[in-house]
Amino acid sequence: MQMLQVFLVTLFMVICILLIIVVLLQKGRGGGLGAAFGGVGTTAFGTRTGDVFTWVTIVLTVLFVLLSVVTTMAIRPERAVAASPEFIPPGGPITAETPVSISVPGRNVAIHYTTDGTEPTEQSPRYEREPVAVKPGTVLKARAYQPARYPSPVVSAYYVQPQTQPAPPAATMPATARAPGA
Length: 182
Hints:
The protein is α+β, with helices and mostly antiparallel strands.
């Protein structure tokens, strides 16, 4: 933690402890905790003990509330990123239209995808658990959106036409070469 965060948490804990002590020392209907120690609360501050403890309690309560808000804002955890989608089957060569499933771990995850190579947004088609039909030459991109998290990175898969390799030429010997032993 940063020094400011350590300071705020320490100050907050001190205010909490002081507030607990002051509330316990106040004289209530039953005499309070001060009466349990021989009337310490009434004799230590004179006859206006109730007024002193009341004002100390008010000041400590205001500090408690202010520090609660400031500490919460200063030590706010970073939002997590949604998990990245995965394509099944992954990108690669395909010969015909192929169904591609998109999965992502977690709950309440919305997956949006595109098949034209553009970046998916929340306005892009939403993946609804039915495979997406892709043809050779398609660039499939997807992004996961989850509440209270940043969107996942965009994941891309390239489904391409397989390369046809020409057959290697037949091995031939030059006419002047002789086979061994001939």
